[in-house]
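Lab channel / #folding
Pinned by the channel admin:
"Please post every new chain as: sequence first, then the structure tokens as a reply. Keep commentary short and put observations after the output so the thread stays searchable."

First post following the new format, from NK:
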Amino acid sequence: MAVAIGSLALTTNFLDMIGNEDRSTAGQNRSVIEQINSLKREDERLYNILAIDVWALAKTMDEYQPGFWAAFMQNREKALKRFLAEMMKNKPADTKRPPFLR
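Reply from TO:
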């Protein structure tokens, strides 16, 4: 208990030493972090909405043209493999890492 009270007094003294400018900067930093977190949540929400839209479109098309979903998934797999190959080709070689981790 004495340690907590001592650290509380130390914290209070430290905060007293910080000027108003530092406090406003901390408030601005907190505001920026909150905005970044909000943007991350909105980005994730948009990603989920787009995934549902794509699924709904493919499901609807599968009802009108049987086999559409299977063809869609095959094309998606090919596109993913092509994307990963392109990323690996453009990735700079890190000579410090072992070959199996590059």
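NK: Residues 1-10 have pLDDT under 50 and may be disordered.
TO: also worth noting, Residues 20-64 form the longest helix (45 residues).
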